[in-house]
Amino acid sequence: MTHGHLTDRSVASAKALPGQRFEISDGRTPGLSLRLNGATSKTWVLRYRTRDQRQMRLTLGKTSTLSLRDARALAAEHLLRIAHGSDPATEKRQERAAPAHGVSTFAQLADLYEQVCASGEWRPKGKTKRASVMREERRVLDKTILPQLGRLPFATITRQEVKALLRAQYAKGARTTVNRTHAVIRQIFNYAISEDLVQVNPATGFSRFAEERPRETIWKDVELRSLWVGLSDPAALRAPGGGYANVGEAMCIAIKLVLLLGQRRTEIAGMEVEELDFEARVWRIRSERMKGGRAHIVPLSDAAVALIRKAIALASEGQDQAPRYVFPTNRHEDRAIRSMSLSLALQRTRNALGLGQATLHDMRRTVSTNLTSERCGVSPFIRSKVLGHIDAGGGAMVSMTHYDVNDYVAEKRRALEIWTKVLLRIVGDTELPDGRPGPRPLYSEAFARADNDNTTDGRPDSSLSELKFWQPPSV
């Protein structure tokens, strides 16, 4: 860079050789320089440092439209703004980028974020977001974020405005919701940073408002029995204020399947007929529907098959063609019920029966706890496989994740059949397969684990004899 005192004459006569580029600084205005590129291109630029000491360059315009006097005046205006903390080069870049995306408000930015997540263009964790996750993010946006921030220009939103929104939610007692709201705002601005739409994420730099403690609730046997009886006769359910509880038979079946199979509510609610193989008695859940992104095979007991067939029959009533979903929505849409609809059905059932606040996920925890208890005697490794978790089983996680594609179907089937017998004995269901009535001892002296059969004489089921502990042969 050449230093000197620029004049109108020196600006007009300044030239660079073809292919050469250099700058002549103005000795009168700090940071202002004349940028020469070849013999004809002459541009005014302003160099400055931000408050965090980043070196920036702002193009002011060409000499053909901006005289030396005007360039000095414009540079002085920018230097005054910079002294007050502005960053005009970054602001100019954002203005150029915004029209390309067509966004200016936070609501428009949220829509753009949703589009790039759905297309797979934006994959912050290296994988495309599942549809259920995006639906939950949209629900949080519509309910808690957009009413407050939606109309604001996203580039002007400050950390204090984000914290004010979160504080208001926290004050209402929405402990879990406030953290989800925080996460959604943070992710949207992370995308904006990746597109150079903003430089700072206003949802970072402070900790979560609410401390989330893992739930430990499990359904007690007496609660399971009461719930199961109510689900078996939904027409008899009454709301606390009188009138029907409005819980359909299909919803009752879906809740029962959560208990029988131990799968997530989203997986049960979105069950597709094509995923079912009744001949092999398995349910193959596609990888895109699983939380972990890996396909999952769920063995089906006779009781589960009976309930699923009944649900398909209900879905087929009044239809000209076979249903795509086991639990289709009753609206005129080609989709399954929402997982939140399943939670609402359970809430109405609980209220009608006077039960506590245990949830569908607590049912999954109940299944998990019972599988590894003395009642079932299933190993924690197989329990994890039943639930669709990735468990190294004491080995290297990389081996389980990348080199072990075993589905452990036989072991999972044995575990779920044992649990089915235990559950149906708890709830007293003698109509479904494996729900045979009759007293029996909980433990068998012949076995080192619970004898989970429902035979009337208390003898162990021969089909479960292979589950007893192995004894070395006598020499």
UniProtKB/TrEMBL annotation:
Basic and acidic residues compositional bias, start-end: 450-460
Pfam family, one: Phage_integrase
Recorded superkingdom: Bacteria
Family annotation (PROSITE patterns): CB, TYR_RECOMBINASE
Any one GO molecular function term: DNA binding
Gene3D superfamilies associated with the record: 1.10.150.130, Integrase, DNA-binding domain, Intergrase catalytic core
Tyr recombinase domain ranges (all copies): 213-417
Residue ranges of domain Core-binding (CB) in the record: 104-193
InterPro entries the UniProt entry points to: CB, DNA_brk_join_enz, Integrase-like_cat_sf, Integrase_catalytic, Integrase_DNA-bd_sf, Integrase_DNA_bind_dom, Integrase_recombinase_N, Phage_int_M
GO biological process terms on file: DNA integration; DNA recombination
UniProt keyword list: DNA integration, DNA recombination, DNA-binding
Sequence segments annotated as region (Disordered): 450-475
Family statement drawn from the similarity comment of this UniProt entry: Belongs to the 'phage' integrase family.
PANTHER family recorded: PROPHAGE INTEGRASE (PTHR30629), PROPHAGE INTEGRASE INTS-RELATED (PTHR30629:SF2)
Name of this chain's protein: Integrase
Organism encoding this protein: Brevundimonas variabilis
Taxonomic lineage of the native organism: Bacteria, Pseudomonadati, Pseudomonadota, Alphaproteobacteria, Caulobacterales
